[in-house]
Amino acid sequence: MKFRVDRDVFAEAVAWAARSLPVRPSTPVLSGLLIDATDEGLVLSSFDYETSARATLSAEVADEGRALVSGRLLADIVRSLPAKPVELTLDGARVSLTCGSARFSLQTMPVEDYPTLPDMPTAAGTVKSEEFAHAVAQAVTAAGRDDMLPVLTGVRIEIDGDTISLLATDRFRLSIRELTWNPVTPDSTLAALVPAKVLADTAKSLTAGSEVTIALSAGGAGEGIIGFEGQVAGGVRRTTTRLLDGEFPKVRSLFPSEHLTIAKVDKSALVDSVKRVSLVAERNTAVQLAFNDGVLTLDAGTGDEAQASESIEATVTGEDLTTGFNPTYLLDGLGAIDAAVVELAFTQPSKPVVISGAEDTGDDTAEFRYLLMPRRLLS
Fold it and tell me: What predicted TM-score, i.e. pTM, was given to this entire model?
């Protein structure tokens, strides 16, 4: 194997393919990056039996072949190289890398021990890459991080015609984000439970191109895989990941159809106020929010401990109300909203609040909603 490639293109592709390599692989070969050199160019692959990554790029290939080398080490080396063409040659059990006057020699791993990457499922449709990445970033706000509850560490993707819904919950909060896309089959109805971290990393990494292709196997959750593919200047990026097993809770019914109190507040002012007041809130205690006569008053701290109080303007429709929330969860939800003014909709103090942007975008499928459970207030 011998090839010559542009340093920047190679460095970007290696970094992308190596980003999902396991920190503690179950077998040494899973820490490797598989390099395939053919007359059509290069293919760089990584796989840990759950998630695969495959990057294709153009290169001047003198001799075809394949090699398996440490992915993280190769990424570190290529990132540090000067802005000159990179030449890589396989010589026996070692790979020689040359860039200008810099030379490296790397030990290879046995290619025959490397697992076969899964095939890409059937393409279900395409979505604008920037919109998809932003929608995923909003949805994963509420995804769980407790591996003891693996179902809640995923994002449920629901496809219904030209609408994609992204749902996530950790039991204390719930997010839903909808966006439009271009399905292959106009009346298709599909669903998948995707690991939130993989989905977020993948969506963010595929924004270099204009569109992302979503490919989904016919199997249900835990029985298939989902794939994402995007075009970039240097070639194609493709990721697949195994779907999570288990039944995602039916959370749509948690959004109430009626609200007795609706408050509209400047988002920036509310975020700043929550951050200040929560400085005196003890761990796992709530920040109190009291809505009364066009004013939102925030309080934290009790008894002989430090206390804080601050008031900001609010447009309140309906009954006066006092409730409290985990300040971190409240800030997470506010941070995921794009609008300058947020709407907090309540049914009663002991029930969840629905937080959304108060500005009408004219596109119902671009709406992000965040449902947050209240916390018990300390007397």
Answer: 0.91
